[in-house]
Amino acid sequence: MKKQALESLKERTQKMQEKIRIQTELHVELKMLHKEEDASLAAERAEKERTQELRSQEEERRLEEEHVQLMERKEELKSQVERHALYNKYMERVVQMTKFEDVQQLTNHLESLLHFKEQLYQREAESDQQLEEKKKAQVTLKDRHVLVRRQRTSELSQLQAELTGTLSEVASWEKKWNHIQETAAKKTLQLGEIKMAALNAFELTGGNEDEEEPVDINDTEKQLEKVQKFFQDHDEFLRHHQAPSPTHKDNGQGKKQEYRLHAETKLGSAER
Questions:
Q1: Which of 26, 105, 183, 223 could hold 202 in an S-S bridge, CB 3.0 to 4.6 Å?
Q2: Residues near 231 by Cβ (< 8 Å), separated by ≥ 6?
Q3: Coiled-coil segments, which residues (predicted)?
């Protein structure tokens, strides 16, 4: 029994030792891991500190350079103030000779004058631009006027040529009209002579004596018909109641024919 207990205890002791060994190895590995993590953190921290240091140094250099620039600007402004002090004194003297109360008021007035001057320059520039545009427009209108004038001159020349032709045609028609009027006047005169001759012959043959229907004084055709009938009646009468000699007969017949031919010719001219 004791042997078995001892073996059991020994076995348990071995197991406990094995666990202790395992625990010890784990503890060692964990400790080594912690050391590695601490080293990494330390390195990271050191890198951050180094970066921060570099940034700080860079910022310090920048500030130093800015300080130097500001000091230089300060010296420059100080020099300008010293140079402008003379102008300030001059302005103060000018103020004393003017109605202004102080230098600031005079400066404001001068600034307003400068502003007004700039406005005048701007207006002058705008006026010059408008004048230039108007000049261009005037040139364009002038060119257009010249073109229109040339067109009107060409049209006038064409119209003058047409007028010359028309006047020539009018002169020709006037000549023809004058000829027509002269011819008409001659015809009218001849017609009047024929009417008078026919009326005289009608009256010589007796006129409207013993006529139931009198012939109108202007009816030349009827008058000539009456004259012709008168000749025919008297020809018949002479042939039946007179035996003239051949010579006398020929003379009388010739005169009748001549008178009849003259009357018919006059009548034919009047009808035409």
A1: 223
A2: 256, 259, 260
A3: 117-176
What is the C-alpha to C-alpha distance for residues 262 and 194, in angstroms, rounded to an integer? 10
Q: pLDDT tens-digit profile of 28-65? A: 888 788 777 777 776 777 788 888 888 888 888 888 88
**What is the rounded distance in angstroms from the CA atom of residue 225 to the CA atom of residue 207?**
12
Q: Taking the C-alpha atoms of 21, 22, 24 and 28 in order, what is their torsion angle to the nearest 10 degrees?
A: 140
13 token code pair: 């002791």
The pLDDT value given to residue 261: 53
Q: What is the DSSP letter of 162?
A: H
Tokens of 74: 């300060």
Residue type, 143: D
Alpha-carbon span 144 to 148, nearest angstrom: 6
pTM of the model: 0.30
Cβ atoms of 220 and 198 within 8 Å: the answer is: yes
Radius of gyration of the chain (CA): 76
d(CA 106, CA 116): 15
Q: Domain ranges in the chain?
A: 13-97, 190-271
